[in-house]
Write a structure and sequence with these properties.
The protein is α/β, with parallel strands linked by helices and 370 residues long. The protein has 15 helices and 13 strands.
Length: 370
């Protein structure tokens, strides 16, 4: 049994936090002792954390202020491997590991397209972390774990990182028995008793996710009965609702907030859409494929092309092309629902917990065996 540590800011509603919570449970299933440490604490994904995972909260007001406390914790609790996630947390973890003499055991991970993501966070401290992180990535002894080949190559192409400074591990998105599990009933009324086609999207209401393009595309659909639900929260709620009003589709667009069970909602929908401008490895797309529901995605950097086999599994359209997106959605709504259903499910299977955890154990310990 190996002692493993995962370091996060918190367990908020982001995709990285959800995946790290899932990874913690999968690592326990693989026979390891796992601690999940949060620089601050709390978050909606804490409720979904496997009870066998030990939780530690440092309650630091800011992540940068957590360095001394994290260093003390690392000195007092020796782990076979330490894994940090998200750029600003990576920088904190590197500093704390250096101070505690545990740098040889530290691994950091990048969850998004670095060259794009560094421009969208308004926090000065986080932006400073993006400036210093590539230099640190060259100096630390273990390669950066990236969630996709695209994320790894982007880091090499746009920063000081070299090819030997990166490695790849898949996200643990799905339970091992996802094919047999019965999904819960959706809780949105438009999905509980469907009278018209319903399109679903899932993600933060942020520029990255391209929901403005999706609403533009939705307004162009020839089927004026169709409805659109975007599950998620974020700073663009008001502008997106105003956009829907301006386009005359506000009565057919709903932004109900965060959903605790996105797969239940997507499974009941007629089409799932990923409209992102950039990604790392879009977990929502994998979850949608696993339900068998028809999907459409943008050919954004990075992830969808790999997951959808360059369009063989489901349609890919250019980023920010609302007309092409509308055409692809309309095509999925009018095609037989079961067309290529098994292909979609099979494409998702790569991201099962058991498979993904092997790639992480190889990256963390040099062997897939715990």
């Amino acid at each position: 049994m190996k002692k493993l540590l995962i370091i996060l800011q918190d367990l908020s509603a982001g995709g990285a936090e959800k995946m790290m919570a899932r990874l913690a449970g999968a690592l326990v299933d693989a026979g390891n002792e796992v601690t999940l440490l949060m620089l601050t604490g709390g978050g909606i994904n804490a409720a979904h954390l496997d009870p066998r995972v030990r939780q530690v909260e440092l309650h630091s007001g800011r992540s940068a202020n957590a360095v001394p406390a994290l260093a003390r914790f690392l000195r007092g609790h020796r782990f076979d491997a330490q894994l940090a996630a998200l750029t600003h947390v990576n920088v904190v973890a590197i500093a704390a590991a250096a101070l505690s003499g545990t740098l040889a055991h530290l691994h950091v991970s990048e969850r998004n397209a670095f060259s794009y993501d560094k421009h969208v966070n308004p926090s000065r401290r986080v932006r400073a972390a993006y400036l210093v992180a590539p230099l640190l990535y060259r100096l630390i002894p273990n390669p950066v774990i990236c969630v996709s080949q695209g994320v790894a190559q982007d880091l090499v192409d746009t920063t000081l990182a070299r090819q030997r400074d990166v490695t790849i591990a898949d996200n643990p998105v799905l339970d091992n028995d996802f094919r047999e599990k019965l999904l819960e009933r959706p809780d949105h009324p438009w999905l509980q008793e469907k009278t018209t086609p319903v399109i679903v999207a899932v993600g933060r209401l942020a520029w990255q996710k391209g929901f403005d393009t999706l609403i533009d595309a939705f307004a162009q659909l020839p089927d004026r009965r169709a409805r659109l639900i975007i599950f998620g929260e974020g700073i663009l709620r008001a502008p997106l609702l105003e956009q829907a009003r301006a386009l005359g589709v506000a009565d057919r667009v709903d932004l109900p907030g965060y959903t605790r069970d996105p797969m239940a909602q997507v499974a009941a929908a007629d089409c799932f859409v990923l409209s992102s401008r950039f990604e790392g490895s879009p977990n929502a797309l994998v979850e949608a494929l696993a339900t068998g529901t028809p999907v459409v995605a943008t050919r954004c950097p990075y992830g969808p092309q790999d997951i959808l086999d360059d369009g063989a599994v489901a349609p890919l359209v250019a980023v920010e092309d609302a007309s092409a997106l509308a055409q692809a959605i309309s095509g999925q709504l009018t095609a037989p629902r079961d067309l290529q259903r098994q292909m979609r499910i099979d494409a998702a299977a790569r991201f099962m917990n058991a498979r993904a955890v092997k790639t992480y154990l190889t990256a963390l310990l040099g062997s897939p065996v715990s």
